[in-house]
Amino acid sequence: MILLQRVARVESKTKTGIFVSSFKDIFNEALGSSSPCPNLYSFSSVAGISDNGNRIVPMFSPWMSTGVGTSLTAGADWMVTQEVALPFKEWFKSGSNALYDQIFQILQMARDDQEMPYGHSTADLALSSLGLRLNELFVLDVLRYGSKDVLSCLKFFDWAGHQPGFFHTRATFVAIFKILSKAKLMSLMFDFLENYVQQKFVHKARFYNTLVMGYAVAGKPIFALQLFGKMRFQGLDLDSFAYHVLLNSLVEENCFDAVHVVVKQITLRGFVNEITHYLMLKNFCKQSQLDEAETFLHDLVGSGKGLNGRMLGFLVSALCKSGNFERAWKLVEGFRDLELVSMDHAYGAWITELIRAGKLERALQFLYSRKSDESYIPDVFRYNMLIHRLLRDNRLQEVFDLLTEMMEEHISPDKVTLNVAMCFLCKAGMVDVALDLYNSRSEYRLSPNSMAYNYLVNTLCGDGSTDEAYHILKHSIDQGYFPGKRTFSILADALCREGKLDKMKELVIFSLERNFMPSGSTYDKFISALCKARRVEDGYLIHDELNRINVVAIKSTYFVLIDGFNKLRRGDISARLLIEMQEKGHNPTRKLFRSVIHCLTEMENMEKQFFNLLELQLSRQEPSPEVYNNFIYGAALAKKSALAREVYQMMLRSGIQPNLSSDILLLKCYLHSERISDALNFLSDLYQTRTIGRKISNVMVVGLCKANKADVALDVFRDIRDRGVIPSIECYEELAKHLCHNERYDLVVNLINDLDKVGRPITSFLGNTLLYSSLKTQKLYEAWVSLREGQVETSQSSMLGLLIGAFSGHIRVSQSIKNLEEAIAKCFPLDIYTYNLLLRRLSANDLQQAFELFNRLCEKGYVPNRWTYDILVHALFKHGRTSEAKRLLEVMYRKGFTPTECTRAFI
């Protein structure tokens, strides 16, 4: 109802009043204040994107919805969007010309329609049917209106030149030359001039005049001077207009010596006028002769010669560019007081240079001071400049004021105005309105620029409307506007995050086809996302396409691809990528290198590729044990002991002495491959060449234990102890574990005695192993009592014996469970495994103490695991407390744990 009442109110106003008033009212109501946009500052630092393409996600906005699609189809929201967009649409339409739009629509159809060619004669007929009255002013206006559409302008120029009763003038030729020059289409311009040479309907004087002006405007003043010399040789001369076009080109291209020659010719022919004075002043400024320029300007005033506002504006601009702002302002004030010329050009130059120098406060102050006495209203160019700079600084309040001011002053907007307005709407959080304007762009011939595309894409990504952002970005690239790499990256992140990899792939290929290069990190994220989605082949295709255009992928891209192909067991491609990575200057880590070799060894008929890769690596760097070690390691992981041995022998044949790592890697390979005799023989050989220390001993004992060769491991252990080497604690742990498993408890006790003798503490692993065995059987305690008799007991060993007795049931524990924890802590550090053993010990008889212990271990920061919950659930079921057991079982499931088979029997 409120919206309907507002529409009824607005319909009673004048057309201009409707749009401006409605625009202000809507903003004020949206922001909850009677003053224009009071809360826009709350958006300024968090809405839209900054000028360099960095996204700033809106923190609050009543206009933004959860998605673009829902917003534009949701009742009142849709009406609000339309009402906010309406003032903009009508204002932008006021800046367009229906007739000119129709002309360029015909020209574009003739150029773009490929399925049903419009045809030259059909286009001619369509243009002729408009009944256009061609004259110089009309043609110039049409060319100026569509200057961005170069090909259509050329077609219109050609069509107009063939119409009866109309002949192109110097001004129209210069206009088309300027369009081609600004578009940097010099080759096209020279083709145009060459085609013009072949025309039969032009006389010599006009022919040379046009060619001289053409080359001058094209930035080729030397060619123009050569043609001018040819004219003079044939007794021809330039007219006043052509002389000044040539003079301007010489000044622009810094041909200062030639400038004086041409000025002399202009003077001799009596062609000197205000344009000559302007170009002479420009010549002084281009040479940084600002004192001479200012003197020249004052001399013109003193002599009463022609003077216009453009000259004053140019000098003001030159002074500001040199940093002389105060001098420029004094010049402006001086001529304002003289009231000799219009000050619009000088004021425009002053505002422009203030904006370029970042002096926004001074620019705004000047603007409002001039407006207050109604002596100056900036043109659309200055407004656009100021708005653009204010947007960069997120000063949205001032942007809003300037936009409404332009509406009120009936300043006809151009395409730049519409683009900055769209950016403003994005920054202010009104992305739906900006999108509505974008979708209606054909109504007022809008061609969004790269900045507008960046703002739209970034804001839509922040709004969660990734699909809409994707289509807009594709359209922008198709139109020749390439987004900033930051914008592309933001959309790529969103697409990868949402798993829309097909769209991302299409976007990347779409960009590469147009030679647009997003950042390496963007490709890395995309390839990583493809690999995580198990689409490694697609990732490789993208990578291969980048290689084709000589784009070097970043290091992490290779890591992710190699890892992906390793998981697919495609060692051949992994090896190829590894070599390519090195050729591109990236050094693989040892882990990556070895993983590739491991993957390669698991392929069929891999020996040839394996040794080819080894030879290649040896040729790329100085041969060293490290290179060979990587290949021994890969073979060891694949349990290819023969392959590892061959690499080891190659190292010896090459005269490279294997280091300790080489020996350990080959020894591990034998053990992992269960080639025990080879391992023992190799160890025997090592005794002949090096002193066997703890590292090799540790590898041998632990490896034998893991190969379930505890007896052999024990022999090696005894041998190294006899040699005076103290094994690592891991040797004691693995031996104790395997001996307990085989119930050889007498040997376990001897092992603990030896540990005592060398002064090593009991580790958590060893202590837990002993307590676990004690829970299962009383044999360990019996062996302990038997073999420890007569031994000197330390406080640690004495306490350990009591614990073994307590857990095996030989010793009754009357103390609290807390005291039992303290007793264990005196022997070895407790961990979650220790607490699980305690829980198992307690839960058999005392569930209350078991749950007290559970609560305490949680309070101490230990994280219960599957076994913790299973022990308690099993005990509850066993004691008949089924409902409690099921509740705890639910907790267990929520934690991601499943009960053991023994516990499942109760369920």
Automatic annotation (TrEMBL):
Keyword terms, alphabetized: Repeat
Start and stop residues of the PPR repeats: 204-238, 379-413, 414-448, 449-483, 484-518, 519-553, 624-658, 693-727, 831-864, 865-899
One Pfam family of this chain: PPR
Matching InterPro entries: PPR-containing_protein (IPR050667), PPR_rpt (IPR002885), TPR-like_helical_dom_sf (IPR011990)
Family under the similarity heading: Belongs to the PPR family. P subfamily.
NCBIfam families: PPR
Protein name per its UniProtKB record: Pentatricopeptide repeat-containing protein At1g71210, mitochondrial
